Amino acid sequence: MSSIFAQTLSKAEKNLIAEVEKNYQETVALLEEVTNINSGSLNAEGVEAVAKVFEREFQKIGFETEWLKLPAEVKRSGHFIATRKGTKGKKIFIIGHLDTVFEKDMPFTPFTFLNDSTATGQGVNDMKGGDVMIFASLKALHDLGLLEDRTITVYFTGDEESSADEELSRRDFIAKAKEHDIALAYETTQSFGIATVARRGSSGWTLRTSGRQSHSSGVFRESVGYGAIYEAARILTEFQEELAGEEYLTFNPGQIIGGSDISYNSETGKGEALGKTNIVAREALVTGDLRFLGEAQKNAARAKMQTIVDRNLNQTDAEITFEDGLPSMVPTEGNMALAGILNELSLDMGLGEVKPGDPGSRGAGDISFVADYVDCLDGLGASGRGAHAPGETINMKEYPELIKRSTLFLYRLTRE
């Protein structure tokens, strides 16, 4: 893809494109350096090591840096923060994350070019490619003196892929975001032509059912009833019949355990069941997740699920509990306006139209924590395939064009 830009680009913008091109080999070298450091969410030393690389680089371009170590009870490393403060233009909060899903005990994949347009490596796409894009764009702006008197905060979290305590871990993140006008997240881009204006939220639920343990020959009789497993099956079936098909709403039972006696470890997800085919089940447990767009949809779904749970079969009982997870990012007018600015820029650069993406196509991310407070846009990062899987790749043909567009996008926003 070539960026044959139109005459609508200013001289400063054309100079920025040239600066990105001049710095590009250094950009690739930085991407290789951070990709080759294992920074699985549970590898505290690795996450901090990646932060130290960015600390070194951001200090070179005039940012003040901070390492926010998380409390011991969170059992995660910390967050990297880089700031510049000024009085002009929009105040921009830029989001990335240092951690990946690849832990130290997993097979290691170093940064490697597979061909002239594709590279692989642990977290190279999700989201070290996006983190490096952020730096490359800000470096180009700094090199040309275009960050003077501007307010920008770069916030790379250290536990986006696996957070043990979102409320505690994101407290400072949310507080700092509230001081800004716009939040931009550099998670993996869906395509050149899509802007992420919304993301669904996620939460969990646990269903427990109980029945009267008895000989199986009496099942369905008034005195014996249906047992815990039939009650669980009824509830899951009615969930599917009454809630499935609602736009943006999904609810998935990921695990079920049932029998005369069960045990379950919520931290490891490991469960055991004891039972016999000639015993009516006394206990059953189901764990699942709920994906939604907006608190209203989440709360309405929970209310419907509770009503279904309360319709107990004979001689059974059931209870459901809900656990909050990541909030959603709804498609506000402010988000849509940011997508419009990106679309205009993309057309000016000759890169084609950008449209708002389907809110149901993306799960929750760090930007969702601040979506109620500032205008937001996500999906500005690298492109590629196979995120979270061995052999994850980054599209190195599109990478320089995405950096150029990112750089000009930041330039236009900081001039508003």
Describe this protein with a few key phrases:
Aminopeptidase; 416 residues; 9 helices; six-stranded mixed β-sheet; 2 domains; Alpha-Beta Plaits; alpha+beta
Description:
- With 416 residues, the protein is of the alpha+beta class.
- The chain has two domains: 11-199 and 329-415, 3-Layer(aba) Sandwich (Aminopeptidase); 206-326, Alpha-Beta Plaits (2-Layer Sandwich), CATH 3.30.70.360.
- Helix content is 33%, strand content 25%.
- It has nine helices and 18 strands.
- It has helices at residues 11-35, 44-60, 124-143, 166-169, 171-177, 227-243, 295-309, 333-348, 399-415; strands at 64-69, 78-84, 88-97, 112-115, 118-120, 150-157, 182-185, 194-195, 201-211, 250-259, 261-265, 270-274, 283-292, 316-326, 355-356, 375-377, 384-385, 393-395.
- The strands form five sheets. Strands 1-2-6-3-7-16 form a six-stranded mixed sheet, sandwiched between helices. It has a four-stranded antiparallel sheet with strand order 4-5-18-17, with helices on one face.
- Helix 6 packs antiparallel against helix 7 (295-309).
- The radius of gyration is 25 Å and the shape is elongated.
- The two termini are 29 Å apart.
